[in-house]
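User: quick one, sequence for these tokens?
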């Protein structure tokens, strides 16, 4: 049966199965044609330099508007795509969208794209990224690839070689969700990251909690600086947390305080305005 075939194989509808499993499979089936049916889109969330309020870039985040179920979170459908072999296609589509987007922004504004560990460990990943850069004409240094600690669970020789090849292309590598893995420090030693993204679980509400979170963030910043890496704090929602991140020397800020993920037209307005106010709503338009 599908189960015996193992994970990654049961990507078809099998009516005899338990309803929860069936529901998952229905969703997987729907995801198969989602790009062709124009149900996926990419939204862009601002990343701001902590020192002033200048735009550093945007993170590209995929969205799925399901015709019957409405919006489905990437936290739900990305794992599905990973399990049944669709992440390569979805991820490559997002990459092309993001590179198209960054062309419309000022030269010093970057775009960050999330790479699933499965994409990262695909032996063709360097060619895929290279081809996308060539097709779009975007300078490699304007592309940041966000990778989670999950990439290190695979064969380490292949992983090491991939890091080298991607760095040789000239793209920037970001370690996403830093601090949530099992051996975060070991990973820093292994790979040539340009930036560390401090996980939201350390950031959100840090100013109003005990100072343990602040102590951890301070240590991450010190470490990153001595390794010549930038830092970005993700999940900054309040002025107090923003102030704390600045006091701790975090170099970039991402969070609802500077903007939610928004469609390309809105992101492009923001990009050309060059700077953004904390909680400033002057650029936020209501959805029509
Ligand atoms: P991530 O890469 O860590 O992305 C950050 C997530 O935090 C986004 O959720 C973003 O909307 C949310 N976020 C940012 N600032 C704040 C804040 O101030 N407060 C709160 N509450 N949330 C904030 P989103 O878009 O739902 O994405 C969730 C995860 O799905 C991403 O986490 C990433 O792991 C994955 N994902 C999204 N798009 C892609 C994609 O194109 N490819 C891959 N492989 N994964 C993706
Ligand atoms: Mg990310
Ligand atoms: Mg993250
Ligand atoms: Mg995450």
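Assistant:
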């Amino acid at each position: 049966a599908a189960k015996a075939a193992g994970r990654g194989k049961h990507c078809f509808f099998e009516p005899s199965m338990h309803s929860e499993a069936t529901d998952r499979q229905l969703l997987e089936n729907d995801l198969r044609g989602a790009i062709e049916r124009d149900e996926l889109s990419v939204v862009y969330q601002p990343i701001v330099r902590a020192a002033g309020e200048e735009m550093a870039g945007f993170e590209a985040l995929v969205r799925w508007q399901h015709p019957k179920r409405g919006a489905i979170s990437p936290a739900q459908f990305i794992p599905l795509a990973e399990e049944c072999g669709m992440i390569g296609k979805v991820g490559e589509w997002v990459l092309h969208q993001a590179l198209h987007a960054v062309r419309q922004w000022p030269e010093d504004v970057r775009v960050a794209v999330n790479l699933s560990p499965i994409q990262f460990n695909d032996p063709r990943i360097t060619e895929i990224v290279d081809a996308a850069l060539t097709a779009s004409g975007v300078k490699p240094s304007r592309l940041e690839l966000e990778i989670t600690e999950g990439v290190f669970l695979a064969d380490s020789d292949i992983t090491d070689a991939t890091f080298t090849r991607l760095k040789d292309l000239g793209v920037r590598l970001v370690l996403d969700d830093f601090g949530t893995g099992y051996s975060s420090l070991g990973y820093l030693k292994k790979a040539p990251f340009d930036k560390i993204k401090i996980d939201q679980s350390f950031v959100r509400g840090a100013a109003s909690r005990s100072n343990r979170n602040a102590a951890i963030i301070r240590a991450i910043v010190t470490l990153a600086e001595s390794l010549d890496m930038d830092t970005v704090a993700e999940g900054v929602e309040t002025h107090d947390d923003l102030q704390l991140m600045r006091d701790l020397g975090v170099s970039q800020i991402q969070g609802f305080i500077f903007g939610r993920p928004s469609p390309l037209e809105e992101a492009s307005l923001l990009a050309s305005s060059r700077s953004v106010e904390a909680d400033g709503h002057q650029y936020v338009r209501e959805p029509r």
